[in-house]
Design brief:
It is a single chain. By secondary structure, the chain is of the alpha+beta class. The chain is globular. The termini are far apart.
Length: 136
């Protein structure tokens, strides 16, 4: 009888603990918001670019980070939002990395987002990322 009560208590504790952990795990998967980016279409035709601005590094040391994508495809609102979220996630996940690493990670995120989310292939050479005077 004692064994059955012990097993029931353990099961109840495990269930309550699992319920408490589940919301915390779900919160960790939300889009990043501490390093937001804003993206917009600029120009048209062969002069079209998608311009994004935001910040990287801890304590917002490098605000005014810019990302310029030279591509003739005008992005719709959903695509611009997807790009903003991808950039914010990269900025949040690399805050303690060297600046050049962070800039390269932003460039890679743009190339990957264009390919996987939009089905558009762009080359890294078409993506310019600058933070202060450091650019790739």
């Amino acid at each position: 009888m004692k064994l059955a009560r012990f097993a029931a208590a353990v099961a109840t504790t495990a269930a309550l603990t699992g319920a408490a952990i589940a919301p915390a795990a779900a919160q960790q998967q939300r889009p990043a918001t501490s390093h937001p980016y804003t993206c917009s279409n600029q120009g048209g035709g062969s002069n079209h670019t998608v311009n994004c601005s935001g910040l990287i590094t801890v304590n917002n040391v490098l605000d005014n980070t810019t990302v310029n994508v030279h591509d003739i495809n005008v992005l719709n609102g959903t695509q611009l939002n997807d790009l903003q979220v991808a950039l914010a996630n990269v900025a949040d996940n690399n805050v303690n990395a060297p600046v050049t690493t962070q800039i390269t990670a932003l460039e890679t995120a743009v190339v990957n987002t264009y390919l996987t989310k939009f089905g558009i292939t762009i080359l890294p050479v078409n993506v310019g990322v600058c933070a202060l005077s450091i650019c790739v």
